Amino acid sequence: MGAIKVNNHTCVVSLILEHEGKLLMLKRPRHKGGNYSLVGGRVEPTESVTHALIRESFEEAGLILKHEDLRMVHVMHRQKNNESIMQLFFYASKWAGTIVNKEPDKCDGLEWFNTDELPINTASAVLLAIILYRQGVAFSEFNWKYPENAWAAGTSIRGLK
Predict the structure, then answer these.
(1) The pLDDT of residue 4
(2) If DSSP codes are grouped into helix, strand and coil, which group holds residue 3?
(3) Is residue 4 included in any domain, yes or no?
(4) Contact predicate 14/42, CB 8 Å
(5) Is-contact 96 64, C-beta < 8 A?
(6) How many structural domains are present in the chain?
(7) Which residues pair with 27 in a beta bridge?
(8) Does residue 7 register a pLDDT over 70?
(9) Closest to 128 in 3D by CA, of 83, 81, 87
(10) Considering only CA atoms, which of 64, 53, 60 is closest in space to residue 101?
(11) Is 6 helix (H, G, I), strand (E, B) or coil?
(12) Which domain holds residue 98?
């Protein structure tokens, strides 16, 4: 019998930043899909998830966040291109700094959207996570090819068409 290979998981953090009933979204350039997403990124092996989110938020958008102002609201285990991704979504409504696109090569712009009127071309995993967070659902699995996985099977949920 051969050795057992253990898959590595990529850990990603995303920021649901809300202000006056609106969410901050970033638009990926066309060569990166052109969809709207949330500020955030990959967690480096040497950092905690909250440090990664604080770092990514500053690097991408000039946001200065504090640990005590972050609240984890949803975890999604998803698959993309045969990669296993654990994505942690944190909510915040407080920040310092000036919101600015600090990575124009990776982002076409940052915009505020009404929480009930998100762009049609929002990345599907992000849209699902936002909807589930707003419904109080703390965990989901997305894009796995198992029959019991409702999100892969296309089962409709409130707010997702």
Answers:
(1) 43
(2) coil
(3) no
(4) no
(5) yes
(6) 1
(7) 36, 109
(8) no
(9) 87
(10) 60
(11) coil
(12) 9-153
